[in-house]
Write a structure and sequence with these properties.
Radius of gyration: 23 Å
CATH topology of the largest domain: Phosphoenolpyruvate Carboxykinase, domain 3
Oligomer: single chain
CATH class of the largest domain: Alpha Beta
Strand content: 15-25%
Low-confidence stretches: 483-487
Number of strands: 27
Largest sheet: 9 strands, mixed
Helix content: 25-40%
Structural class: alpha+beta
Distance between the termini: 61 Å
Shape: globular
Length: 487
């Protein structure tokens, strides 16, 4: 039995929460040592208080028919039986930091979100802090550790997964990362896709780094996974401990194999990571994976409209996921699996928080995945995403204008830094193409999705849906027939 007293958030932060987890497996104990601030100081901080978060975990007999991951918000309790998987066993992560915490935030007036936190530094040394919500397979971790392709621009990492957002004393929105580690998917991680993550995994500022269900290169005694740089090692043991032969067509590493590594190993770690007050957020970015319809970047008209953009966010499924390509799975703010209460009320909570902010951050939608007529991605992504982040920073600081569309404000192409990208203008224009006829099915799907929340759905979200429907109706040849032509 292991007793793990831990803090989510810096111990001196007014936004931190004290927790205690019991577990019967050393794997969980070591993981939690990396992912959270663990120590006797937490017990001292709790003292005689009863409002700390309690977690009980046991792998039991690992019978999938006896697997229960249960949340009791009224009791500040998580109870997990029958699973050793990270998300089900490291109870400070999704179970508390999102499911229980989102409910606490609803009750206490703050937000617990499935969001990256980054600082974007411009050539003059000014840093703008933003949060980013994206469902899986949308490049969230890559964005958190982005290596800029633009000279003079840097991205500083504060978190790759969870953000707690509170209204600060000055009325602005402040974010903290309640975790101290990175629990990432190994396959596909390489110097090409995420060089800073590879540097993090090889750093030695904090020991240990764990690798779960990867393959093992017997000759070097190092982990290996599909997508890693260099040739495939000749002598591999697969994730089940068996000698691996590529001719069998099986994966050496489990597709969901993981690494657990300390944030303090990250070469791009922000100097503000341990700031108890958090960092002031100037923009919130919401993303999904859509091959059509959704522009590369859109700025919402206002906070309420931004909440609607988040409410309708979704990603297209793959053939493997749903036996049908292009089916949209709605995942508002990437929180559908993690929200601890009714999502209609969740949208209302977002709207209410926005009313208390002075001023609220600007809200943006991004989509790196639009394709051309050949089915090939138009936007290069990865380090080139800094070009979109640069425009967002310039909008936040009122340095550039924008064009009004039914979906929100989009960039004038002259304001996007496209130097060095070998993409024809007509393809760039397709990244922002809005065809009202193509949106009819999308609107029906959004309406169907929102209708399931019934009386819990805020009137403001219904209003924004109706506004979008009307604006698309009056949009012709790139011109919105309204009193506002652009800003």
């Amino acid at each position: 039995m292991y007793v793990l007293p831990y803090m989510m958030g810096h111990p001196d932060s007014p936004y931190a929460k004290a927790c205690i987890q019991l577990t019967d497996t050393s794997y969980v104990a070591v993981n939690m040592r990396i992912m959270a601030r663990v120590g006797k100081f937490v017990v001292e901080k709790i003292g005689s208080r009863q409002d700390f978060v309690k977690g009980l975990h046991s792998v039991g007999d690992l019978d999938p028919h006896k697997r229960f991951i249960m949340h009791f918000p009224d009791e500040n309790l998580v109870w997990s039986i029958g699973s050793g998987y990270g998300g089900n066993a490291l109870l400070g992560k999704k179970c508390f930091a999102l499911r229980i915490a989102s409910w606490l935030g609803w009750r206490e007036g703050w937000l617990a979100e499935h969001m990256v936190i980054i600082g974007i530094e411009d050539p003059q040394g000014n840093i703008t802090y933003v949060t980013v919500a994206m469902p899986s397979a949308c490049g969230k971790t890559n964005l958190a550790m982005l290596e800029s392709s633009l000279p003079g621009y840097k991205v500083w990492t504060l978190g790759d997964d969870i953000s707690w957002l509170n209204i600060g004393p000055d009325g602005r929105l402040y974010a903290i990362n309640p975790e101290t580690g990175l629990f990432g998917v190994a396959p596909g991680t390489s110097m090409k896709t995420n060089p800073n993550m590879m540097r993090t995994l090889k750093a030695a500022k904090f020991y240990p780094t764990l690798f779960t269900n990867t393959a093992l290169d017997v000759e070097t005694n190092e982990p290996w996974w599909e997508g890693m740089d260099g040739p495939i090692p000749k002598n591999l043991v697969d994730w089940q401990g068996k000698a691996w032969d590529s001719s069998r067509g099986t994966k050496a590493a489990h597709p969901n194999s993981r690494f657990t590594v300390s944030m303090y190993n990250c070469p791009t770690l922000s100097k503000e990571f341990d700031n108890p007050k958090g960092v002031p957020i100037s923009a919130i970015i919401l993303g999904g994976r859509r091959t059509q319809l959704i522009p590369l970047v859109v700025e919402s008209f206002n906070w309420q409209h931004g909440v609607f953009l988040g409410a309708r966010t979704g990603s297209e499924t793959t053939a493997a996921a749903a036996h049908q390509v292009g089916v949209v799975r709605r995942d508002p703010m990437a929180m559908l699996p993690f929200c601890g209460y009714n999502m209609g009320d969740y949208f209302g909570h977002w709207i209410n928080v926005g009313k208390k902010l002075t001023p609220p951050p600007k809200i943006f939608s991004v989509n790196w995945f639009r394709v051309d007529e050949k089915g090939e991605f138009i936007w290069p992504g990865f380090g080139e995403n800094i070009r979109v982040l640069k425009w967002i920073v310039e909008r936040v600081n009122n340095r550039v204008g924008a064009k009004e569309t039914p979906l929100g404000y989009v960039p004038h192409l002259r304001d996007l830094d496209l130097e060095g990208l070998n993409i024809p203008n007509e393809k760039f224009e397709k990244l922002f193409e809005i065809n009202p006829q193509d949106w009819q099915q999308e609107l029906e799907d959004i309406e169907k999705f929102l209708s399931q929340f019934g009386k819990h759905l805020p009137q403001e979200i219904r209003q924004e849906f109706n506004n979008a429907k009307t604006k698309l109706k009056f949009y012709e040849n790139g011109i919105l027939r309204s009193t506002h032509r652009g800003i």
